[in-house]
Design goal:
By secondary structure, the protein is an alpha+beta fold. It folds into 3 domains: 215 residues, HUPs (Rossmann fold), CATH 3.40.50; 79 residues, Uridine Diphospho-n-acetylenolpyruvylglucosamine Reductase, domain 3, CATH 3.30.465.60; 118 residues, no CATH class. Helix content is 39%, strand content 19%. It contains 13 helices and 21 strands. The strands form 5 sheets. The chain has a 6-stranded mixed sheet with strand order 3-2-1-4-6-5, sandwiched between helices. Helix 2 crosses helix 7, helix 5 crosses helix 8 and helix 5 packs across helix 9. The radius of gyration is 32 Å and the shape is elongated. The N and C termini lie far apart (78 Å). The mean pLDDT is 91.
């Protein structure tokens, strides 16, 4: 196994000036990787930096950190430690992953390194692919881990990806490599552990070469992913801007390209929390986009709202329904949208921005409020009622503006005016009788 991995390392053209950052937990996988890199260091005298993370969630964490530190001192490896003292009340594994890679990238910059090595093996690949298939994911998620990934400033390398967990355990036993055991890896409360303990052993009984089969599956998806990614990278320059999708030419793209564009913008919105978004959320966004409604929204994880506004789809952190208000209109009033309702002595015009009323036909005082579900108005000059919602749609009012838009009613709740948009049957013309004059300014 050492020689096979060393031969693969030769493909990376490492030099004596290179610094290799290695993620080492102290378990058998990472200790095996560190051992192999130490062996290859005899041929290429690069610098090895061990990156160890103490998650501080188990009583053994301190002793494990000391074990790795001691091993590194004995073998001339630079030791770097991250000790995490605070955890947010969210998904632990997701947080841990983010904090680890944030630490790794800090070290890459500190040491001006271009290579990050991790000890992920073939069983990890199988677990990842199966979990993503069950949960729903993207092409990138379904293909799982890659042996070599090019990131912005470095290469992420996983030289053990062709080996099984059993092969690694045999290797550390044969070469007397010390390691520690994380008891939490046996706890059934973690999804990945259940796949590792119960599902993968059954699959291996059916197919002894399971790792190779999953590697072939992953490699095939990588080919598809590369093709789609090339197309998406060209299209997204025209479609995605500041976490917003331009839907003007949406129907000209294939469903696959559409989905990938959605994932691209979601990656911008969620960043480290992208795993919170599942395939069903993408399907909901697709339905929203293809909906006949010009203005609509759906709720996504972590208080994110996807808002469709005609030919735009944006992602916002605010609550659309948070601007409810109801105000007694007994004098000039400044409104939630920054405008004003003014009482005048004489009308300035008879446009939709003015309303003249006859107090004898109304139950005073007047009120101004935000819209409510089911609102209807008897539009002047029309027979019957019209939904306020439909008026907003007809007038192309953006969704977030609708909740702030003023609705003027009398004390019976009858809508007498939608300032700037529509007058009711109660609004008077120049020739009719009126004694209340309102101006929307």
């Amino acid at each position: 196994m050492v020689e096979e991995v060393k031969n693969e390392l030769k493909n990376y053209h490492l030099t004596k000036d290179d610094v290799l950052i290695v993620g080492v937990s102290g378990g058998p996988d990472s200790m095996a990787l560190l051992s192999v890199l130490l062996e290859y260091q005899k041929e290429i005298p690069y610098t090895l930096v061990c990156a160890h993370v103490n998650h501080n969630v188990r009583k053994e964490s301190e002793s494990e950190a000391e074990f790795v530190r001691s091993y590194c001192m004995d073998h001339g490896v630079v030791f770097e430690l991250l000790s995490i003292d605070h955890w947010e009340n969210t998904n632990f594994h997701e947080q841990a992953h983010y904090k680890r890679y944030e630490f790794f990238e800090f070290l890459l910059k500190k040491y001006h390194a271009s290579y990050l090595f991790t000890a992920h093996h073939g069983d990890d690949l199988i677990e990842t692919i199966l979990m993503h298939i069950v949960r729903g994911s993207t092409l990138k998620g379904y293909r799982g881990l890659r042996k070599q990934e090019y990131r912005k400033q470095y290469q992420l390398l996983r030289p053990f990806l062709d080996y099984t967990k059993e092969e690694i355990l045999e290797f550390v036993k044969e070469h007397h490599i010390p390691y520690v055991v994380d008891a939490s890896n046996e706890k059934d409360k973690y999804t990945r552990n259940r796949y590792r303990k119960y599902i993968i052993p059954l699959l291996k009984k059916e197919e002894p070469h399971l790792v190779k089969k999953f590697r072939d599956f992953s490699d095939m998806l990588v080919l598809y992913e590369n093709e789609v990614e090339a197309d998406v990278n060209e299209i997204k320059k025209e479609v995605i801007e500041q976490q917003t999708l331009d839907l003007s030419h949406w129907s000209t793209y294939t469903p696959l390209i559409q989905q990938q564009l959605i994932y691209e913008v979601l990656a911008q919105v969620y960043q480290k929390n992208l795993s919170q978004v599942h395939k069903r959320h993408v399907e909901q966004i697709m339905k929203l986009i293809h909906s006949s409604k010009a203005n609509a929204y759906i709720e996504l994880p972590q208080s994110i709202i996807a808002v469709k506004k005609y030919h735009k789809l944006s992602f916002e952190h605010k609550n659309i329904t948070s601007n409810d208000y109801h105000i007694l209109l007994d004098g000039d009033q400044k409104l939630e949208n920054g405008k004003q309702l003014l009482f005048l002595q004489q009308p300035e015009d008879f446009s939709n921005f003015s309303c003249c009323l006859n107090s004898e036909e109304l139950t005073l005082p007047l009120h101004v409020r935000s819209r409510q579900n089911g609102d209807v108005i008897e539009v002047k000059g029309l027979h019957g009622h019209k939904k306020v919602k439909d008026i907003f749609i007809d007038e192309k009012i953006d969704l977030e503006k609708r909740q702030e838009w003023p609705i003027v009613t009398d004390s019976q709740g009858r809508i007498v005016w939608i300032p700037g948009l529509k007058k009711s049957k109660f609004c008077k013309t120049k020739e009719e009788k009126y004694d209340i004059i309102l101006k929307y300014h």
